[in-house]
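Tokens help. Consider this.
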Amino acid sequence: MATEQFAFDRPRLTALLPQAKRVYFRDAITRGLVLAVTPAGVKSFQLVRKWGGESVRVTLGRFDPDTPESREIPRGTPAAPFDPLAYIGNTPRLNVRMARTLATAVSAAMDRGENPAQKVREEREAARAELTLRDAFERYYHDHLIPGGRRKADLMRDYFARYLGRVEPGQKRPRGKEKSKATGAPDWERRKLSSIRPADVRRMMASIKDGGTLYGGNMAFVLLRAIYRKAIAWQLYSGPNPCDGIQKFPETERARFLRADEMPRFFEALARAPETIRHFVMLALSTGARRGNLVAMRWADIDLASALWTVPGEVSKNGAALIIPLTAPALAVLKERQGRDKTWVFPAASTSGHMINPRKAWDDLLKDAGLEDLRIHDLRRSLGSWAAIQGTSLAIIGAALGHKSPDATRVYARLTVDPVRDAMERATNAMLQAGGVLPQAEVIPLRKKA
């Protein structure tokens, strides 16, 4: 066992050299305190004593010559007595004084019938059985996200890989670009749920934000918080949610839309643009639909006679079917595109069979129009903004931009969307007039009464 016994002190323990085999040294002051030195030079304090008729060895922590001699083990209070497991379960760095205090506390616990070594083993076994973040996400994905809609579920899976997990090599985006991790994002897939602390969450958010995407930092936080909430609610995890008490970064709401002074050059450039992007933009402006729904627009979902377009719930953002009225400009585009493909309004040679993202054509259009900082999504905001300029109520604007609608027949749906169509028609006409596509409405002055 121990090759030598002496009173431990920092200089002498520091001078001990490793040997071919593990060797042990016994402290002459504290009963049962031993220092083990491995061939690699690792020095660990242990308590060795009899317990239950057997020899028991409890590893207390590593000897660290840089730990100040003044540092001590907390004594504890009557309300919160000292728990040696809080130290020996986390392999602390110890000086000689701390090792002696800890050995005495562990020995006293064993005299009371407790076996700290067994408790440490049980905690380690429980830790091995604890869910990793990947395990918890898979349960969240299959038991919560999938029942709510496949589209959102797959989007959250991409977010998890990009911001919290690992992106497997070779995965492609719809336009062929390989998927990649967000700059500054961690890989926490194998981390146990209890190992992620609030400080880790804050650092993760800041790292992603500093990497160039404030939205990504917030998205990672929101997803992580949701995973923990479900794991706790389903009794898969009994610890705290490390996201509690943390706030998202403030996000500046984007307010960009096509202004009146930009309309003429925008529509002049649009008239010179290729037909597909011209049709796409006119539909975006007149329906206020999201890009993802527009590029995947199907003829089966369009009722030209009733002038209605139903976006199925499985592809809508909120998971519910959306009924969008079709104004005269939208109907004109759709009638012009009829007969080109049986399934898609915007067919393309892609794996999905339809157009994915007309980014290059959009960039060319903006360059020709001399416009900057305008996104495709801003066309949707333009419809809402111009509707507001025309005095339309917020409730009508919300419906025009695709708020949830009851799942009723087209006849009843038409009754509910007539005022929405009227608002959209007026907003679209106002934009076309501002762009010089339609003549300005004639203003007839009222005669004063005699």
Q: What stands out?
A: The chain has three domains: 2-129, 133-233, 263-434. DSSP finds 16 helices and nine strands in the chain. Residues 18 and 41 are 5 Å apart (CA to CA).
